[in-house]
Amino acid sequence: MFFSLSKLRALHLGNCVGTDLPDSIGSLKHLRYIDLSHGRFRVLPRSICSLRNLQVLILFLNLVCIL
């Protein structure tokens, strides 16, 4: 899903009705900012740990229970 966005630096999915982030988010090596606020995400994929440039992860008012 995210393979064609390899240079992406910011991802805003606030108010998103999706419940799962794909493992391919780990391929966004340049990503620095992720906003998942007010969403319905429950689980963050393990691949999010490989985002070495990630500086901001916003989970405000979210359903995430497994990191």
Which features would summarize this protein structure in a list?
13% strand, three-stranded parallel sheet, mainly beta, 3 strands, 67 residues, Leucine-rich repeat, LRR (right-handed beta-alpha superhelix), single chain
Q: Could you describe the 3D structure shown?
A:
The chain is an all-beta fold. The chain has a single domain, classed as Ribonuclease Inhibitor (Leucine-rich repeat, LRR (right-handed beta-alpha superhelix)). The chain contains no helices and three strands. The chain has strands spanning 10-12, 33-35, 56-58. It has a three-stranded parallel β-sheet, with no helix packed on it. The protein starts with 9 loop residues before the first strand and ends in a 9-residue tail after the last strand. This is Disease resistance R13L4/SHOC-2-like LRR domain-containing protein. Keywords: Repeat. Residues 4-58 form the Disease resistance R13L4/SHOC-2-like LRR domain.
Q: How do you describe this structure in short?
A:
Helix content is 0%, strand content 13%. The chain has 67 residues and is an all-beta fold.
Task: Describe the main β-sheet briefly.
Answer: 3 strands, parallel
Question: Could you tell me the radius of gyration in angstroms?
Answer: 11 Å
- Within CATH, the superfamily carries the name Ribonuclease Inhibitor
Shape: globular
Quick check: average pLDDT?
84
How helix-rich are the residues, as a percent range?
A: under 10%
Helix count from the secondary structure assignment: 0
End-to-end separation:
21 Å
Number of domains: 1
Uncertain ranges: none
How do the strands of the widest beta sheet line up side by side?
A: 1-2-3
Count of DSSP strands: 3
Strand content: 5-15%
